[in-house]
Amino acid sequence: MATQQSRSAARLMMAPAVVLLMGWMLVPLIMTLFFSFKKYVPLRGDTIGNGLDWVGLQNYERFISSSSFWPSVQTTLIIVISVLLITIFLGVLLALLLDQPMWGQGVIRILVISPFFVMPTVSALVWKNMFMDPVNGILAHLWKFFGAEPIQWLSHESLPSIIMIVSWQWLPFATLILLTAIQSLDREQLEAAEMDGAQRLKRFWHIVLPHLSRAITIVILIQTIFLLSIFAEIFVTTGGAFGTKTLTYLIFQRVFDSQNIGLGSAGGVYAIILANIVAIFLMRIVGKNLDK
Amino acid sequence: MGRIVLNQVSKSFGSTEVIPPLDLAIEDGEFAVFVGPSGCGKSTLLRLIAGLEDVSGGVVQIDGKDMTDVPPAKRGLAMVFQSYALYPHMTVRKNIAFPLRMAKMPKAEVNKRVNDAAEILNLTDYIDRRPGQLSGGQRQRVAIGRAIVREPSAFLFDEPLSNLDAALRGGMRLEISEMHKRLDTTMIYVTHDQVEAMTMADKIVVLQAGVIEQVGSPLELYRAPCNVFVAGFIGSPRMNLLTGAEAQKHNATTIGIRPEHLSISNESGTWEGTVGVSEHLGSDSFFHVQCAAFENPLTVRADGGLELSYGSKVFLSPDMAHMHYFDANGLRIE
Ligand SMILES: Nc1ncnc2c1ncn2[C@@H]1O[C@H](COP(=O)(O)OP(=O)(O)O)[C@@H](O)[C@H]1O
Ligand SMILES: [Mg+2]
User: Fold this and answer.
1) How confident is the model at residue A46 (pLDDT cuts 50, 70, 90)?
2) Is the CB–ligand 1 distance for residue B207 below 6 Å?
3) Which atom of ligand 1 is nearest to the CA of B46?
4) I need a labelling partner for B206 at 20 to 30 A (CA). Which of A62, A74, A233, B66 fits?
């Protein structure tokens, strides 16, 4: 893109995409901001047509002072951090395993990656009805087989259950990224470390893991952004009950259950701020890690 | 100490035999060079000695002990890889210290050895940099530093200079030879470059398709190559290998004469020919002369002062004392 002409041609061709993206993102963002400063409860007869009352920061104050707010932030963070830990730990193990030459490698790799192709709603329903159902679920049968009392997964162990489901969905992604990273490791480095007297574990710790650090940061960054907004998994399993109400779910409840659009929008703005704090934080770590 | 003996060692990958059973002894303190064309199994042979590859058959002995099933770290050998294989996330200091840390050596001793190695290799100014911030030659030094701090009984080098430019290569060649003289440790050096082999080796092992063609000192190989392959491989420019009626006259299938053993004259000589391309290096000149008696042009070395125009008539005379004769199987006839 050196010449004036090629630059303006590039701008012209990118314009449709830019306009579409701006519309896609800016319109909802501005509407959210707009509603968050208004009293907007359709059940009480508020309509955009009649004009909405300006309430200033009242929605923001109410949202944050609600007894559900801090627990929902806590739940969100617990889910995000646990899923990150589980997917990265198991992802590294699986990637190491899949990197070994073995029979039926291609098929096994596809099988490992396949959960990623299942829609969140579907996989959550499968987990709920086929695995975690306290009467008919496979896990209940397993517990009974060993003579134990089946666990009421989604009511008694609700948060761990959600974490399990979400981890299952994101494990393939982590594995895939980490596997490609492992495959890009120079074999001679491992051989050199072997000659230098590093045993298997030491080689992993001193050579493989540092090599993976970049891929791990990328997995953390991408997963965090998506995990902050998980919704379907909670909606179809616990419906936000039993301490599984995340920030996203709380906003949903404010808008749809309580029909308070103004309050929900204020919550949305909080979520945007939270996501941006996390994103800036992560970007700086990734930036540091990437320009090594 | 570092006497390495291979006894009927062989290697196959699946059904392809890369190295048929071979015997080889490398004496303590010797600088041995494995040389041969690319893909002939040099690296594989070196990796068998290092233990990075399992032998398919035979025994590897180091200092009289059977090391065939001993893991690489316990063989007391250090290796310098073609890609250097430095650890990219560690500083030069940590790279060099790595084998010592793995051996759980006390900190003070590690520091002393690393500093000494850095001193010898002129790395002191770069000791806190990472490999990515070093030039090719400096990386090479770090790789060598990582090998020498272990004080191994033998060093293994796999084409260590092939990623460097020509000028640096010449310098590093000298440094490695110098290091060998100073440390007085066995070194096995793999290269496809016969110039490196000739200039550095005490003993050259010429390989072709996994088979040892000849073992000997550089001058032995130069003076008495045992077959056509070695004759053509050792020496630069290559020996002229001639077949046909002229060879028959000497009861040989092939005769060989090096460019430096042919003399060139305008008036008279054994073979008449026309001058083709000339290469002037200043100190020497090489002429490619097409003779009627042979199919391929002959290369002739002459004094750097000689200038001949393209297409001019000349006569070549071989120095009969340096003529090599080979039979139908390509083997040397004395
Ligand atoms: N791991 C391997 N699997 C199969 N074939 C190999 C392997 N390593 C080397 N080879 C084959 O062995 C031959 C010798 O290779 P190598 O020792 O690397 O040659 P050189 O170092 O002399 O260039 C080559 O034909 C190569 O294709
Ligand atoms: Mg090689």
Assistant:
1) confident
2) no
3) 17
4) B66
Residues of chain A with C-beta less than 8 angstroms from the C-beta of B83: 186, 188
Residue nearest to atom 18 of ligand 1 (CA): B43
Chain B hits for A212, Cβ within 8 Å: none
Domain span at residue A81? 67-259
A199 assigned to some structural domain = yes
Cβ-defined contact of A292 to B89 (cutoff 8 Å): yes
Domain boundary among B183, B199, B230: B230
pLDDT of amino acid A80 = 92
Can you give the CATH number for the domain in which B252 is found?
2.40.50.140
Give yes or no: residues B213 and B322 share one domain.
Answer: no
Same domain for B224 and B265? no
B11 ligand 1 Cβ < 6 A: no
For A192, which residue in chain B has the nearest alpha carbon?
B85
Shortest distance between the Cα of A29 and any Cα of chain B, in A, equals: 42
Domain termination site, one of B230, B263, B279: B230
Q: Do A206 and B81 touch (CB under 8 A)?
A: no
Question: Locate tokens 């990637």: which residue?
Answer: A95
Domain that holds residue B298: 246-326
- Residue A232 in domain: yes
Q: Whose CA is nearest to atom 20 of ligand 1?
A: B39
Q: Looking at this predicted complex, what is its ipTM?
A: 0.85
B43 lines ligand 1 (CB under 6 A): yes
Number of domain units in chain B: 2
Per residue in B56-101, pLDDT (tens digit) is: 999 999 999 999 999 999 999 999 999 999 999 999 999 999 999 9
Same domain? For B39 and B85 the reply is yes
How far A179 CA sits from the closest chain B CA (Å)?
19
CATH number assigned to the domain comprising residue A180: 1.10.3720.10
What is the per-residue pLDDT across A145-200, written as a single tens digit (0 to 9) for each?
888 877 777 778 888 888 998 999 999 999 999 999 999 999 999 999 999 998 99
Q: Is A28 a member of any domain? A: no
In a domain, B24, yes or no: yes
In chain B, % of residues over pLDDT 70 = 100
Q: What is the mean pLDDT of residues B160-178?
A: 89
Structural domain total, chain A: 1
Cβ B150 under 6 angstroms from ligand 1: no
**Same domain, residue pair B274 and B200:** no
B155: CATH: 3.40.50.300
